[in-house]
Amino acid sequence: MLELEINKKIYKEIFNLVELSGGINGTSKVLKVKALKKALIFNIGDTVKLLANKQLIFTGKIFESSFSTETLLIDFTAFDNSIYLNKNKFVKNFNNKLPSQIVDEICGELKLSIGKLPIDAVKCTFPAINRSGYDILLMAYTIQHNKDKKIYSINCNNGLIEILNDDLYIDLTLDSSNDIRRSQFSENIKNMINQIVIYKTEGNKVQIVDKVANESDKNKYGLFQEVLHYNEDMNNILNARDMLKGKEQKAIINVNGNTELKSGYSIGVYEPNSKLFGKFLIESDKHIWTADGDYETILELGFEKTMDKIEFEEEKKKTRYSLTRGKDREIIE
Question: What CA–CA distance (Å, rounded) separates 155 from 22?
Fold first, then answer.
């Protein structure tokens, strides 16, 4: 049973379409609802909750609405609280702070509640000038990813901002006999990078320091090369290896509806027709309920452990930013 709660009023069995979607790359969870106008009462800015079998699966705020006189249907779009991480920008200078402390600071200023966070593994020092809250949290966990190579994603779980990593596993295997309705598989080498040239500059001289390559991909597909400027404060070989990109493989599977299937979690899949075997990270999820009572979940699966990352300000140690606070000026280095 699907239920909507708006302004403490419960709506059920009035929907033409309900769609809940999310992903691991900078997106908020989005709820779209379509129903007869006379059956649904709401205003822009109202808080909406979605419940499935009495279990809360979404909390958010209505941002958009439209109405058609032709169909007499009204629809709205709601976003969860992570939208505020995307919509607010900051001027910050973090010095020797744990990722969890950065989450506390940003969410504190936005008055967002915090849920589960991973164990801190690093301390972070970086400026964040004109960066969104999402970017800042991603900066902190990009630094942690560079150390432990775990895949981190920012999630909102029923109003709570959480940081997920790919250690999280849904103890379920989807198979073509019981769960999978349809599947699609694609692969390409359009974005392949199989060699990184590391260089540094001294005055007017440019020197090649090292090369990192995937020799197997070079021999099979030809050379696809990028360059990386040497940074004495970073592990250049590790960063170069992280830039290598192999053959991209994507799979989309349509399965029987299941609210436990969420982006940022890993899942077991057994689908012999598409040769999908093993453990996959859910990169995006979409849940669709229709008026005829059908419920379907569409999952995009990732084959490689890739993370949404953020580029840092270049030459951050050499840059001085001047901030005006009243009559005083603070210099950030």
Answer: 9
DSSP 71: T
Q: What gap in Å lies between CA 83 and CA 267, rounded to an integer?
A: 26
Element (DSSP H or E) covering residue 19: strand 15-23
Nearest CA to 33 among 79, 70, 77? 77
CA atoms of 50 and 60, how far apart (whole Å):
9
Question: Could you give the 3-state DSSP secondary structure of residue 242?
Answer: helix
Phi-psi domain of 167 (left: phi exceeds 0; alpha: psi -120 through 50; beta: other): alpha
Segments in the chain forming alpha helices (H):
83-87, 99-110, 133-148, 215-221, 236-243
- Buried b vs exposed e over 246-275: b needs ≥16 C-beta within 10 Å? bbbeebbbbbeebbebbbbbbbebebeebe
Q: How far apart are CA 29 and CA 286, in angstroms?
A: 10
At 113-142, the pLDDT tens digits run 999 999 999 999 999 999 999 999 999 999
pLDDT band at 239 (very low <50, low <70, confident <90, very high): confident
Extract the tokens encoding 151.
């895949």
Residue 35 to residues 66, 195, 222, Cα–Cα distance (Å):
11, 53, 53
Look at the alpha carbons of 192, 194, 199, 205 in this order and tell me if their dihedral is positive or negative: negative
- Spatial strand order of the sheet with 225-229 comes to 205-213, 195-202, 225-229
